[in-house]
């Protein structure tokens, strides 16, 4: 899938969805604060059916609308002004499980909800709300040994600046000073940054829980900003994105720094690259261009591989393709079968009842991790 096609597909999925499931005839009054609220804040709230309720204090406003979904183009929930000059409202239907971005429009001005935590998405810091999922246990914070997410600053001569990355090291990394680990380079999507996989994606908790259950081999995860712009790009600029400068940052600057700073196994057999959406495009392009660097490839809602694109099959240990049920499951299935027929170790995953959103990618990482770096 080329960059232009990916941009069109992603935009269609991200900005046309309503973010709501089927409307329920009655709403249960069992609302509780969202788990992503600011400390001590009661709103926004979520009930057991997945409805969301908002409360905004804006006594002089004439109109208050909550816009849910990446970019906030899902039509919006119009809030009503009460006798106390406080605006409240509930979504028309239950929302789909998982994480959602949103913002508040007050008399035409766009603001974040003071009651909610903020997350970088839509090329800006947006409010976030979590709709409890039936399978949320796999990314829950549990009483298990935890790894650490380190913030690092690495020198980048190609961009003439210091750049930031986050590095997850698994539980026990600090206690055994001789053990070395494989590495997964994990990329975010368009409009997000290097904080996305830890904050929205819960990648560290997914790994902690899998390792505690003995379901995955411990490995390091590196998450960095997938663009080379000094100024964060505006939405809609994906079509003009040139991947070559980022490829230089990743392969020639970040990777040597990580190998020198952390106890990695610095060879192709023990390196993987994966990414969601735009990060999948980056993964696709870089892994094909440099098969000597990575042996495990994963595209999460980020296109597919064709067998003829891969020149040396012996260098590829795994190709993982995933998507949400309401994205492109048929395309993923067909591409995986074609890869298998050509002799590749290819695995596909379709996330039930999800779209181009973090619940799809959380589940995808949960399925992918145990497949990586098998002996």
TrEMBL record:
Domain of life where this protein originates: Bacteria
Signal sequence segment: 1-21
InterPro entries: AB_hydrolase_fold, Esterase-like, Ig-like_fold, Ig_E-set, Mycobacterial_A85_antigen
GO molecular function terms listed in the Swiss-Prot or TrEMBL record: acyltransferase activity, transferring groups other than amino-acyl groups
Entry keywords, A to Z: Signal
SUPFAM superfamilies, sorted: alpha/beta-Hydrolases, E set domains
UniProt-recorded name of the protein: Putative esterase
């Amino acid at each position: 899938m080329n960059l232009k096609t990916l941009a069109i597909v992603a935009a269609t999925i991200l900005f046309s969805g309503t973010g709501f499931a089927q409307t329920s005839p009655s709403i249960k009054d069992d609302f509780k604060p969202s788990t992503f609220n600011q400390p001590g804040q009661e709103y926004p709230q979520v009930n057991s059916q997945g409805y969301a309720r908002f409360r905004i204090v804006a006594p002089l406003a004439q109109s208050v609308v909550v816009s849910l979904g990446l970019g906030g183009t899902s039509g919006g929930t119009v809030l009503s002004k009460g006798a106390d000059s406080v605006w409240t409202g509930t979504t028309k239907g239950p929302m789909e499980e998982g994480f959602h971005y949103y913002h508040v429009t007050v008399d035409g001005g766009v603001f974040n909800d003071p009651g909610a935590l903020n997350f970088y998405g839509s090329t800006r810091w947006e409010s976030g709300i979590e709709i409890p999922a039936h399978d949320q246990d796999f990314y829950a914070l549990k009483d298990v040994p935890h790894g650490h997410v380190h913030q690092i600053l690495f020198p980048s001569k190609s961009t003439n600046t210091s750049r930031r990355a986050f590095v997850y090291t698994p539980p026990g990394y600090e206690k055994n000073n001789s053990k070395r680990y494989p590495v997964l380079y994990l990329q975010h999507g368009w409009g997000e940054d290097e904080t996305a996989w830890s904050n929205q994606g819960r990648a560290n908790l997914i790994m902690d829980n899998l390792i505690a259950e003995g379901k995955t081999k411990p490995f390091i995860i590196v998450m960095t900003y997938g663009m080379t712009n000094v100024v964060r790009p505006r939405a809609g600029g994906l079509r003009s994105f040139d991947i070559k400068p980022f490829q230089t940052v990743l392969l020639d600057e970040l990777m040597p720094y990580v190998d020198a700073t952390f106890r990695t196994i610095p060879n192709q057999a023990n390196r993987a690259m994966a990414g969601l959406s735009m990060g999948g495009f980056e993964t696709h392009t870089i892994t094909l261009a440099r098969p000597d660097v990575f042996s495990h490839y994963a595209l999460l809602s980020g296109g597919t591989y064709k067998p003829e694109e891969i020149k040396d099959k012996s260098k590829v240990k795994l190709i993982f393709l995933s998507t949400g049920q309401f994205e492109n499951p048929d395309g993923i299935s067909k591409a995986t079968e074609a890869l298998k027929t050509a002799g590749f170790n290819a695995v596909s995953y379709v996330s039930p009842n999800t779209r181009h959103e973090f619940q799809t990618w959380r589940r995808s990482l949960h399925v992918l991790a145990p497949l990586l770096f098998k002996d």
